[in-house]
Amino acid sequence: MKILKERILFVVILLFGIGLGFFGWKVWKFRSVRIQKPIFVEEWSKAVLKNTQNLKIPLNKIPGKLKLVYFGFSHCPDMCPRALIDMSSAVKELGDEGKNLTPIFISVDPERDSPELLAKYVKQFPGERLIALTGEKSELDYLQNAFGVVSKKVSAPQLEEGYTVDHTVFIYVLDDQSRILMTFPGGTDGKTLAEGIRKFL
């Protein structure tokens, strides 16, 4: 019951940020949030998604003492590319310590983000450890709910595909016990990410 209350409080805090207008492509202007007590994400410990080689990967088996997790999509015009560049920069900024950090990109657009497409997408970004994952919509929704991530398909007739996806833009720090330690707002640069993460390595 105590864990459930902590999870509910965590999600409420994130949704409060969204309610203030920090949804979609807008950058959350508040500072990073260090979770007072690590929050165990049971769904992460059980979820299995597909990587860019179309192989099923249990999320709790992904290597690295810490993971930087971001939910986005390959057709995202701005915040997603920026987040992936910042995450890769954080790994570089940490130097040898960064060997224990794994950046992870999880799609919120399974309709378009196939393993093959994500394989091409991640090649655009620096670093060799970036892991991109996708899966069935039900699997991704299950995981999004656990993190308090909100995404919404929005009609965009001017685009070739006819739609885009609005979504929250938080970066999550997870440890190797499937616990959220800290969150960063989208748009946090690599140096700031590294400074916040270093204390956990």
From TrEMBL:
A molecular function (GO) term: metal ion binding
Top-rank taxon, per record: Bacteria
Residue ranges annotated for the Thioredoxin domain, each copy included: 31-201
Keywords: Copper, Disulfide bond, Membrane, Metal-binding, Transmembrane, Transmembrane helix
Keyword Transmembrane in annotation: yes
Cystine residue pairs: C76-C80
Residues annotated for Cu cation binding in this entry: C76, C80, H167
TM helices/strands, residue ranges: 7-28
Gene3D superfamilies in the cross-refs: Glutaredoxin
Pfam family, one: SCO1-SenC
PANTHER family: ELECTRON TRANSPORT PROTIN SCO1/SENC FAMILY MEMBER, LINALOOL DEHYDRATASE_ISOMERASE DOMAIN-CONTAINING PROTEIN
Homology family: Belongs to the SCO1/2 family.
Protein name (database record): SCO1/SenC
Lineage: Bacteria, Pseudomonadati, Spirochaetota, Spirochaetia, Leptospirales
